[in-house]
Design brief:
Layout: E1 12-16, H1 23-32, E2 37-40, H2 56-60, E3 63-68, H3 79-92, E4 97-103, H4 107-117, E5 122-128, H5 141-146, E6 148-151, E7 157-158, H6 163-175, E8 182-186, E9 192-193, H7 194-205, E10 210-213, H8 216-226, H9 231-234, H10 237-240, H11 250-255, H12 262-271
Parallel strand pairs: 1-2, 1-3, 3-4, 4-5, 5-8, 6-10
Antiparallel strand pairs: 7-9
């Protein structure tokens, strides 16, 4: 399905996590269309905080659609309940159009999807594979700079997807009511192991980036050392058991084009200097 001008009425869109990897791209694309945007974050005006339900109502004033992202991840304990509670508040406030960013193959994330749907919203679910931008904007940035990806993924593969593709799908879902009631699964155009990723990063940066397989226990030890939640290690199970070891075609279905390849992303990110040491 390609985008058309069959848009719902232009009104404020609340973007929860609107300063994040997908959220800020959604904001840019909506603003380029002349659509008003409100950033839902602790530093927003008004502020939005998932852990302070009293902030939800003020953030929803004057809003008729919401892009829902959850930090740190929909798979974390309590996320589904919070998403469901927020969705009910949103619908009651008049923001019936809800687009949820979910994860491929995450059972806990799918519980959050059902909680959101139960609110009676006009919903769209966007299930994404792991982001390309995790390597230059998130937890893999420093390992890439250090030249070593030490992860508990063995030779498992993932169909990494670009956040610009995700954002474009989300904008379509927010602005074209034909996407209501649909679930789209998004991936990139090929399956890649982390060794493949390291090879592409090496090519793009012109220096050696190696992949080093480690055990789950070793990786959890690293998380403890840097103060990150142990639940991040649990997310690797969706790669290790092969549940996402196939391509999906939501990008083509919504946008009518092929998704961006990891190699193109890596070249552009390298040119920005983000991985320079």
């Amino acid at each position: 399905m390609t985008r058309t001008t069959n848009d719902i009425s232009p009104a404020a869109a609340l973007l929860i996590g609107g300063n994040g990897k997908t959220g800020r791209r959604v904001a840019e694309k909506l603003r380029a269309q002349g659509r008003p945007v409100r950033i839902g974050s602790r530093t927003g005006a008004p502020a939005f905080d998932w852990n302070v339900p009293g902030t939800w109502g003020p953030a929803l004033e004057g809003v008729d659609r919401v892009y829902v992202t959850y930090y740190p991840d929909l798979g974390f304990p309590g996320a589904a309940e919070q998403v469901g509670a927020f969705a009910e508040v949103a619908v009651a406030a008049g923001a019936r159009r809800l687009v949820l960013l979910s994860g491929r193959g995450e059972a806990a994330a799918q519980r959050a999807e059902e909680c959101l749907k139960a609110s009676g919203a006009d919903w769209t679910v966007v299930r994404a594979s792991w982001f390309n931008q995790n390597f230059d904007e998130d937890f893999f940035l420093e390992p890439v700079r250090a030249g070593e990806l030490a992860l508990p993924t063995a030779d498992a593969v993932e169909a990494f997807v670009d956040t610009d593709d995700i954002a474009e799908v989300v904008v379509a879902a927010l602005t074209d009511d034909r996407h209501a009631g649909r679930t789209y699964e998004l991936s990139g155009p090929r399956l890649m192991s982390f060794a493949d990723v390291a090879a592409e990063l090496s090519k793009a940066t012109g220096r050696e980036i190696s992949y080093v397989p480690v055990s789950d226990e070793e990786y959890r030890g690293v998380l403890r050392e840097v103060g990150l939640p142990q639940e991040f290690a649990d997310l690797f199970t969706q790669i290790l058991d092969g549940r996402n070891a196939h391509l999906v075609h939501g990008v083509e279905e919504v946008l009518g084009r092929e998704p961006r390849d990891f190699a193109d992303y890596a070249r552009e990110a390298a040119a920005s200097g983000v991985w320079e040491v």
